[in-house]
Amino acid sequence: MSRKYVIEGGRYLKGEIKIRGAKNAITKEIVASMLASGKTVLENIPDIGDVSLTTQILEDLGCVVNHEKQAGTLSVNTKNIKKYSVPFEYSGINRIPILMAGPLLHKFGQAVIPMMGGCDIGPRPLDFHISGLEKLGTKVVFDGKSYHFSADKLIGTKIELPFPSVGATENIIMAAVLARGVTVIKNAAIEPEIVDLVMMLQSMGAIISQEVDRTWVIQGVERLNPVQHRVINDRIEAASFAVSAIATRGDVTIKGADQLHLQTFLNWLRKAGGEFEVLSDGIRFYGKDAVIAPIAAETAVHPGLMTDWQQPLVILLTQASGVSVLHETVYENRFSYVNALNKMGAKIQLFKECLGGRQCRFLYSGHLHSCVITGPTPLTGAEIEIPDLRAGFSYLVAAVMAQGRSSLSNIRYIERGYDRILEKFRALGVNIEVEED
Length: 437
Ligand code: EPU
Fold this sequence. Notes:
By secondary structure, the chain is an alpha+beta fold. The chain has two domains: about 5-20 and about 235-435, Alpha-beta prism (UDP-n-acetylglucosamine1-carboxyvinyl-transferase, Chain); about 25-230, UDP-n-acetylglucosamine1-carboxyvinyl-transferase, Chain (Alpha-beta prism), CATH 3.65.10.10. It has 13 helices and 23 strands. It has helices at about 25-30, 50-60, 100-110, 125-135, 165-175, 190-205, 235-245, 260-270, 310-315, 340-345, 390-400, 410-415, 420-425; strands spanning about 5-10, 15-20, 40-45, 65-70, 75, 110-115, 140, 145-150, 160, 180-185, 205-210, 215-220, 230, 250-255, 275-280, 280-285, 295-300, 320-325, 345-350, 370-375, 385, 405-410, 430-435. The chain has a four-stranded mixed sheet, covered by helices on one side. A four-stranded mixed sheet has the order 2-14-16-15, covered by helices on one side. The longest helix is centred in the N-terminal third of the chain and has 13 residues, at about 50-60. Uridine-diphosphate-2(N-acetylglucosaminyl) butyric acid binds near residues 122, 124, 126, 129 and 167. Uridine-diphosphate-2(N-acetylglucosaminyl) butyric acid binds near residues 27, 129, 166, 167 and 417.
C-alpha cells in the first residue's frame, strides 16, 4: 500500500515547534553504543525511520533496544551481540551499516556488511571508508554483494582523506578508539554531529582531540563503557522549518534551534531577506514583510553552507526578485529534484559549470551541479514523486506556498529523516492529509 501527502496550498506557517535530536548524529551514536558492553541510554531521540532501521539492525545482531518514543529516549543493551554479519536485507537502505565495521571488528575480529544505499543523490562511493579501514590493518574483500572485513587487532596510523567525508571520518574514529596506538585523521570532517559523536565517545572513555586544519587525533584505549548521552539538536530540521516560515511569509518560533550550529545558515538567510530573532531557547523566524533578495552561494563542508540546507533555500529563492545562483560542491548530483519545481511554475536552470564561487572537484565532470533560479515565480499545486529526503521536505514547503492542491508520493523518504512531520506542519496551520492507494 502506498501513502501520499495531500496538501491544500496558499497557506503560511504560524506557531511554534520543537526540534528533536539530529538524524545524522543519533544513527551514528546508536552504532557507537556497540563499542561498549552493557546498556547505553540516548536522549532527545527523534521519531524517524532511520532510527527504526538502525535499531532493527542492532536487534538482528543480538542487541536489546528499547525506544520510548513519547519520552524520546532509547536504550541499547549490547551485552548479547552474537552476530558479526549485517543481514543482506539492509543493503541499499541507508548509509549506516558500513559504520558498524569498526565496532564489529573490535568485538569479533570480523564483520560482514552488505552494499550501501541512502538517498538517490549521486553515486556515494565508499572508497575513503575502505581505504581508512585498510590502513588501520583491516583485510577487506568485496564479493560483489557484501564487504568482508577481518583484523586481529587494529593498529593506529596516519590517514589523510581526499575529501572531508562525514561518514568516512566517523567510521575511522569508531575503528580507531579501541585500536592499539595513535590514529591521526587529516582533512577530516568536523561537522557538529561528528563533534557530538566524539563527545559521546569521550564520555565512554575514549581519548580524542581536535587539532587545527581538520585534524582528529585518537589515542586508542583498552575499553569503553556504556553511557548516557543527549543527542545534539537537528540543525537541518531547524533550517528547513526556518526557510518554510519565511518562504510562506509566516512566523514560526523554533524551540531548540541553536544559533551556534546555524551561524552560516543565518547569515545566508539574512542576505536573502529572511528575518529572525534569537531567543533564550530557540529562534523565531518571520517573513510577513520580508523583501526576498537573490543570492549567489555555494554549499561546502562545515563550517560552510550545508548541502542539506540547499534544497529549502532553493524554494525561498524562487520568491526572490532577481537571479540567484547556488553551486553544489559536496554532491555532484543533488539538483535533479528541481524539475518538479519547474512543473509547479519555478524558473530554475541547471549548469555543468562551477557558477557563483570557486571551481570545485566537479568541474569538467559533466554533472549539473550549479543552479540558477529566476524569481519571483508563483507556484501552483502538482502531483510529485519524492526522490530523496531533503528534496521531499522542499516539495512539501513548495506545496504549502502553491495555489491549489498538491499530492506527494514516496513520503517514506521524508519520514526517514523528519520527526513527526505531519504533526508539526498541522500545528503550524497547514492542511495536510494522508491518502492511501
Ligand atoms: N565520498 C567519496 N568516497 C567515500 C565517501 C564519500 O567519494 O568513501 C564523497 C561523496 O560521494 C560525496 C562527498 O564525499 O560527494 C561527501 O560525502 P560524505 O561522506 O561526507 O557524506 P555521508 O557521510 O555519506 C552525511 C549525511 C548526509 C550529508 C553529508 C554531507 C548521514 C547519514 N548522511 O553523508 O546527509 O549530506 O554527510 O554533510 O550522516 C541527509 O541527511 O539527507 C544526507 C544526505
